[in-house]
């Protein structure tokens, strides 16, 4: 069984960050197909959906690629309830 990897692409140049994500998607699809390629937008995705995507095993291939765009700074912090 392979160990999970986590890669974070951030930077001032959002164009280059998006191009690198496209390259990863293309290379992954060429090697493993696109059945286990999951992409989320951090503005719309629920935390539960993201956790489920990264926690579940690959379905039709030996690897899975999960891309989460617009994650950093996408959500407003939740207000904490005082007890």
Would you kindly provide a written description of the structure presented here, covering whatever features stand out?
The protein has 83 residues and is an alpha+beta fold. It has a domain at 37-73. The protein is 34% helix and 12% strand. The protein has helices at 14-32, 47-55; strands at residues 37-41, 65-69. The chain has a two-stranded parallel ribbon. The termini are far apart.
The overall pLDDT, averaged over residues, is 83
Spatial gap, N to C terminus: 44 Å
Shape: globular
Q: Compute the CA-based radius of gyration.
A: 15 Å
Poorly predicted ranges (pLDDT <50, ≥5 residues)? Answer: none
Write down the secondary-structure element order. Answer: HEHE
Strand order of the largest sheet: 1-2
Q: What structural class is derived from the secondary structure elements?
A: alpha+beta
The number of E-state strands comes to 2
Sheet having the most strands? 2 strands, parallel
The tally of helices reads: 2
Range of helix content: 25-40%
The percent range for strand residues is: 5-15%
Which labels suit this protein?
single chain; 83 residues; alpha+beta; two-stranded parallel sheet; 2 strands
Secondary-structure blueprint of this entry?
Layout: H1 14-32, E1 37-41, H2 47-55, E2 65-69
Parallel strand pairs: 1-2
